[in-house]
Amino acid sequence: MISMTDFLIVSAALFCIGLYMVVSKNNAIQILIGIELMLNAAVLNLVAFGKFDRFTNGGQMFALFAIVLAAATTAVALAIILNVYRRYKTIDPNKVDKLRD
Amino acid sequence: MNLVQVLFYIMSFIAVVSAVIVASTKNLVRSVFMFFITLFALAGLYVLALADFVAITQIVIYVGGILVLILFAFMLSGRETLNVLHQQKKSFISANRVAALLLAGLFFIVLVNMILKVDANNLLWIKKALATSSVVLPTSDMTGNIGVNLMTQYLLPFEAISILLMMALIGAAHLSRKEQAQ
Q1: pLDDT tens sequence across B67-82
Q2: Domain range A4-88, CATH class
Q3: pTM of this prediction?
Q4: Where are the domains of chain A?
Q5: How far is B73 from chain A (nearest CA, A)?
Q6: Do A10 and B70 touch (CB under 8 A)?
Q7: CA distance readout (Å), B53 to A43, A60, A95, B61, B66
């Protein structure tokens, strides 16, 4: 039986790598990949603790909901990225700094 | 140390190392394709946590849906911007990256410290679950149980998330269409 602490440490490592990508990258697609990594770390925690809930399946169920939410988020974010590219000809979030049209 | 533990360490090693490569490589296409490997290794970790249905969902939705979407956005957003970004990265490499590394490293230390203090194997509700034998066993049929629970106990979140998915679909289609002449 795998100990819970191992799962938690792997998930913490993945979360911190995602955090590093979100903070340091200057490409919107790579920032999106960082967010996906952080979401996957959270899902790993949910699944690992869901092992102790056989009858109502709380952890696995909300892991499924989190995966579906990540899919919806990615679709909308990629549509926004394509729009930004069409307007500014760059996908660097530091350069997209105009609020008006 | 039995076979399951060995598999767990191999899977988590692959996941963490490929995530580090995703974060550190300069080539954008390579980082997207290394992200595939991270997701597959995470699906293996879900299987080892006895959540086979979540693992299959992870492969179908992430690898089949999200990564293909990312690749499309990547190819549609043009090659010359990527080259420009490459040159900028070479010029000021340090200040931005050192701060991010510091933030991520310190946060990791805080998280590991907290995990070691909380001692997750001996939490109260986990002990109660062990005592009442409501732990998932490798032989128990989880997929059928998930289906029954989805239609009874979690019906409201299920319906809410279906409406949210439809809204996200319509919103993405609306955002990404061509602007008409105004």
Answers
A1: 888 888 778 776 655 6
A2: mainly alpha
A3: 0.89
A4: 4-88
A5: 6
A6: no
A7: 13, 9, 42, 12, 18
